Amino acid sequence: MTSISLPRPWPRRPARGFTLVELLVTLAILAAVAGIGSQFLYPAIGNARHDITRDSMRAVVAAILRFRQDTGFLPCTGPLEADTSSCGSPSPANLAQMFVQPDTGAGTGDEWAWNADTGRGWRGPYLTGFARQYVTVSNVYPASSDGSVGSATVNGSRVAAVADSYVSRPVGSLLKWYDSTISESAVTGRGNPLLLFVDPSDTLRAKGCVAPCLVSLGEDGIFGPDTNGNDDDLVLNF
């Protein structure tokens, strides 16, 4: 009979846990790594939002220039201002005529239809790469002492607008976005409206704006400088 010998087991060592000092050292290392990571992550996110907003502003300005080339005017200026359905709320955020053909006559809008013979007229919508959204804003900026652009009333006039990539809001801001002019439920997660200033004599236009210009409220969501005098508004003159 063949005998089989089993291998001798290794001597069992007593189980050993982490000491309090080791746990504290580990936690300190993890916290340091997280802190180092956040120092690079947050600026990167801020820079990405800045770049996205800048690119969006350039695209909107290019569309506005096409609008002016086709019609001869900037939105809601000159004879286009008679379009009360689109320009009834004279807000810098109002870009309604970039989405809908102006109607300054008998309610048909035909007077601004594209005319191939004259090379004039409306050939929109011009903001095809942007969702048509509606925002409640004030006609006057800043609308409140905190520099926010929310309407003076929660149920203020809604205008078709384009949002930037910054979702921050000043405390107390009444700015609200909607998917239509009649929907009752506001939507979240959208930025602040881009503002179009067309009048060089407008004393309320943004600092650095040589009208016409397009303005983003920047990361702080405040029009103009904050209480510390910091102004991160993005201004694109054209």
Automatic annotation (TrEMBL):
Cite the Pfam families for this sequence. Answer: N_methyl
Keywords of the record, alphabetical order, are: Membrane, Transmembrane, Transmembrane helix
The highest taxon in the source lineage is: Bacteria
TM ranges are: 20-42
The UniProt entry, under InterPro entries, shows: N_methyl_site, Pilin-like
State what protein this is by name.
Answer: Type II secretion system protein
